[in-house]
Write a structure and sequence with these properties.
With 364 residues, the protein is mainly alpha-helical. The chain has a domain of 214 residues: MetI-like fold (Orthogonal Bundle). Helix content is 74%, strand content 0%. The chain is built from 17 helices and no strands. α15 packs across α16. The longest helix has 38 residues.
């Protein structure tokens, strides 16, 4: 016998060890570690780009206070802030501050950027939640309908609608919705997160979170809940339609791809209806790409929140960012954008892990 048997290679009582995936290591754990380590270069590149772009514009002190201080006062403020030093010295000092959680203070009001995020970030988070709910409620069902009627007129209409939703500027869609539902029909509030009376009532809620819907529920006042939700309808729809168009086309494409699989053809040959095939066999596989895309949509929602919050006077991070841009307070703008970059990077990390847990193919 010339061939070496397994018994001759492996000693008695010792189990054979065969490499799996990456030499016996856990693919999921390896994937999580790699994705986590990628956060740091991503944040580093984004923070560096924001810093350099802000410095190309000019000195932040002069940009924000140039017309309100004398030349001597400006020189003193610039020297005090350290903006008279070489740019690379400022850059490395800023990186050191960022890694310690210090994103600087706004020039116009002196508030720490971290405090600004804590104060206004919850409002933006609430608006993003409403937008995602709208995107799921509208985009996923319509994507299934488009896949069911593929290559027929309902499919063509829905594809055009999805393109229009994605391509329409957020501020224009918001103005149109305000004109229709607030000015003409007078059924929804024109701006704000809640009425003045509701906001005053929510200030006294024990354990308030700053998220008006949760605070309204904690208050136990039905009128407050209704008021908060009525104010959230138009901003949520305006921002949600932007993402709904992406979900619609993504669900349609993936459902159609799933319907061409062999196991679906086998079910179809057994007499299973097309509607049941879409609902039972093709629906869940089509949701896996949606989870992956959510991370990218968070960045889109945060970008759209700036215009949406400004249009509806929704006092969130986007609204505050627009105020600092108007005041040319580039230190506050730089800090807020850097923090948003960190949030987007962490969100993408979480979404990647969820996708790996749901679909094992992602881990390899």
């Amino acid at each position: 016998m010339t061939a070496t048997t397994q018994a001759e290679v492996t000693p008695p009582g010792v189990r054979s060890r065969r490499p799996r995936g990456g030499g016996g290591s856990n693919p999921l754990l390896r994937y999580i570690i790699v994705r986590f380590l990628l956060i740091f270069p991503t944040v580093f590149i984004l923070v560096s780009m924001v810093f350099l772009l802000m410095r190309v514009i000019g000195d932040p002190i002069t940009a924000a206070l140039g017309g309100r201080l004398t030349a001597d006062q400006l020189a003193d403020r610039i020297a005090e802030a350290g903006y008279d030093r070489p740019v690379f010295v400022q850059y490395f000092e800023y990186l050191g501050q960022v890694f310690t959680g210090n994103f600087g203070n706004a020039i116009t009001d002196g508030r720490p950027v971290v405090e600004i995020l804590a104060t206004y970030g919850v409002a933006t988070l609430e608006l993003a939640f409403y937008a995602l709910v709208v995107a799921f409620i509208i985009g996923i069902p319509l994507g299934l309908v488009a896949a069911y009627f593929r290559d027929r007129w309902p499919d063509a209409v829905l594809r055009v609608v999805a393109i229009l939703w994605y391509a329409t500027p957020v501020f224009f869609a918001g103005l149109v919705l305000k004109l229709i539902f607030s000015v003409w029909l007078k059924v929804l509030p024109v701006a704000g997160r809640a009425s003045t009376r509701t906001e005053l009532n929510l200030q006294s809620v024990d354990g308030r979170t700053g998220i008006y819907l949760i605070d309204a529920i904690l208050s136990g006042r039905g009128a407050a809940i209704t008021d908060v939700l009525s104010h959230a309808v138009l901003p949520g729809i305006t921002l949600g339609l932007l993402t709904a168009g992406v979900f619609l086309r993504l669900v349609r494409t993936n459902v159609i791809g799933t319907l061409s699989m062999d196991y679906v053809d086998a079910a179809r040959s057994r007499g299973v209806s097309e509607f049941r095939l879409v609902r039972k066999h093709a629906y869940k596989p089509a949701l896996i790409p949606i989870i992956t895309v959510i991370g990218l949509q968070i960045a889109l929602l945060l970008g759209g929140a700036v215009l949406t919050e400004t249009t509806f006077e929704w006092k969130g991070l986007g609204f505050q960012l627009a105020q600092y841009l108007a005041a040319r307070d580039f230190v506050a703008v730089q800090g807020i954008v850097a923090l948003l970059a960190v949030i987007v990077a962490l969100t993408n990390f979480i979404v990647d892990i969820l996708a790996a847990l749901i679909d094992p193919r992602v881990r390899y």
